[in-house]
Records
---
Amino acid sequence: MSPFPSDLIPNILCRLPVKTLLRFKCVAKPWGSVIDEPHFAKLHLDHSLKTSTNVKLFLDNCIELDDKAYAVDFDSLDNLIHFPRPFMAETTKYRSRIFGSCNGLLAVYHREAGIALWNPSTRQCRYLPPLDDDIISDHDALPGYHYDKNTVLGFGYDETSNDYKVVKMQRSKSQNCYKVLVYSLKANSWKRIGDCPYDFPTNYNDGAYINNSLHWIGDEIGEFRGGKVIFALDLATEKYYEVPEGDTSFKMKKCGGDCPYFGYMNAGVLGGCLCVSRDYSTCPVEDHINVWVMKEYGVKESWTELLYLSRDEWLTNIFHTRAVGYSKNGDKVLLDDGGGRQPAWFHLENETGETLSIAGAPQLVSTRIYVETLVSV
């Protein structure tokens, strides 16, 4: 019998889950060498993304005092696992939270201890270096539980330079602006870029990564208008730009009101598309939000209304609602309010809600989708 072609081994191994691959590293040195290669990590990641396999739902317990993190298979919500968090919880201290997920890496923020990039599949963790003292001393920090109103964060992958980047914006005490710092994983260092030309109306405003850019909701500086601008920071050029918004002059199909005023609450990514929630808390009929999806990035006319949520009828705090992901067959959307209440499924056809319940996991969690990966930090 002829020997098994060695060039086929990576193409076979890339179809396996990370846990199995880590175990196989001990089987034979040749296999271990293949699995440790950065090229193989990319091959494995690309296969998982293409086939929508190895997808996990991270359950970020940010209410109860708990040093563990939890995850389940996203499609089935089974196979609960738990593992240590990068930052330990203390009774009277601020607890960490996840502010970004990209290619299997999670970005973790702790207001006192700093920021970490973490691969929960391999348990690798890199703690980012601290910022310079002059930046820290000029930070206009406000006390908060999970979100610091004057700190805005984002995490993404710069395809141009093959580099993972963290963006941290801090409101200046001495100037009417947010100073912006960008961390490069390749360089393992921070650098300051141009100040953010926008202000932030809400502290529930982590950057949404899509199209090589991080996206936020903002207002022109000095003009608090409740979130009228969708803007982005290109991770390659480190330049800011505005994303065209959809039609805002229509009459709402369900509430029946004219809804002359609205503001965007947050930006997210749903099914590979940019999405936003529109706040109509001044609606003359009922408080509600709408979630819209930009089907074709950058094309104004491609904005499509996905769902309508009323304050009285919905299961979570609608004004902090963030779209997490579609179910496997696309008939419902998982919505999250940041951990104050339980995440819930929204059934698109009959417009009903169903609270997410996972045996053995904490009840009050914030959720993120991530894919199991061998990407190293």
---
Amino acid sequence: MSAVEAHLPWGTTTRAPWALEVTPERAGWRYAGLRVLTLPPGGVVTFDTGDEEMLVLPLAGAATVHCDGLSLTLAGRASVFAAVTDFAYLPRDATVTVRGEGRFALPSARAIRRLSPRYGAARDVPVELRGAGPASRQVNNFCSPEAFDCDRLVAVEVLTPGGNWSSYPPHKHEEDRTHDDGRVEAELEEIYYFEVAGGAPGDPGGPVGYQRVYGTARRPIEVLAEVRGGDVVLVPYGYHGPSMAAPGYHLYYLNVLAGPGPARSMACVDDPRHHWVRGSWADQPVDPRLPLTGPTTREA
């Protein structure tokens, strides 16, 4: 995958009714997908999930989601920088209607099991402060393997204060194996969807962040993308990180992950050249600007 194929600017994957559509076929892989739905006041969209399980995650706005005879009301939020949000889970082989106003992300994964539609409350989202110093960030683990049950789908939100680096040290999860040093790696496809504080999707002059992806001699890939609100970066394999927030502008990204493993996992392995960075966090305070949103628990 080339740098051009990996970086998908807002507006380049539009297909009605989706403002953004990344299917496994579009990405050139097998499992992970993402759609973004933009609804005007009183907007209504009906669609089928097919062979994918999905979430409805408000990025900005509120909605009511109808699925399998259930009506799930999402209070949502004003923006990704304003609050942790509630969300809805949609099973495969379902017909869904979304009514509301705003912008909504629909992370997805090819699924085998058909689970029940469910509501995820904002108050139940585990919020983690990860890293320290200029590598401090906030992780909203709303659909991590430990927090919310799915068949294959994993999704989390990351908020990086302006000037900080996240997704750091660079790490990869491209094959299922245990390394000689005991670290476990899982095969996962990953999507990064970005928003930048002070900007809006589709604004060519808006504030920017940066995303790095690089490979190994065996599987080369080279990406250094300047990202704006609504942009996507695909990570089929290789080390990814850092995600860089420009000074003065907080950076948000939604991570969507899925793979063939029998158990949902976010297991990864750091680039061994930079793994030492984790040990340096013990002597540094967490960025005092965190948490940017929501309740939190302190975790390493």
---
Amino acid sequence: MSENVVCTGAVNAVKEVWEERIKKHNEDLKREKEFQQKLVRIWEERVSLTKLREKVIKEDGRVILKIEKEEWKTLPSSLLKLNQLQEWQLHRTGLLKIPEFIGRFQNLIVLDLSRNTISEIPRGIGLLTKLQELILSYNKIKTVPRELSHCASLEKLELAVNRDICDLPQELSNLLKLTHLDLSMNHFTTIPLAVLNMPALEWLDMGSNKLEQLPDTIERMQSLHTLWLQRNEITCLPETISNMKNLGTLVLSNNKLQDIPVCMEEMNNLREINVHFYGIYKNTVFW
């Protein structure tokens, strides 16, 4: 009986030793694998950084990252070593997302990522207080974060041809320097309140949306000189449009207008109005 106990104890002891050895061996293999993966990542980052540096140019006194028609679905963290960049121009690269670390590029003045497949604007965009131009046309963006309102230097914003954007956060009316806004070819059914309250806005394109009418409060846009509203469903114009004293160009072709308000004849600065009267004719009139 006691011999069996001793034998069983010896077997268990040997088993524990082997299990411990196997465990240690597996841990060593895991560490080795992790080390190899780390080396691969370091090497890949060095290679990608070298490739990125080759795409950096100086133009008009700016340091620009310029990539076009090359596949860059993601941007590596090694890009952070080029934080002196003042402008990004990445077109037709298949870029899927704006990196979360975008806010660390404090010197950025222009961010042009048009013609990619970006679906989201990260909240970190609001950290770019020097940014003057944000161009994200021809992507797949659906919503715009309120943090964009913190880009106090922004003068130009283009979100055309994203197809599904239907509203903007009211906070964007805090963009006091924004003069140029392109929202064409999206899914807006009305002019957003944020847009109506942008104090410096001079140029607005809301063509090819789903607008059926313009709000009476459109007169708030007193700085506006060019308004593109082509290819919508607009049936009539509010009388208050005549109070837009700086409006010089109004494009209304391919809507459902039957007439335009007589009061518009009093708009002395209106030099060009392009109108397609629904079912009647298409014409351009110079006043």
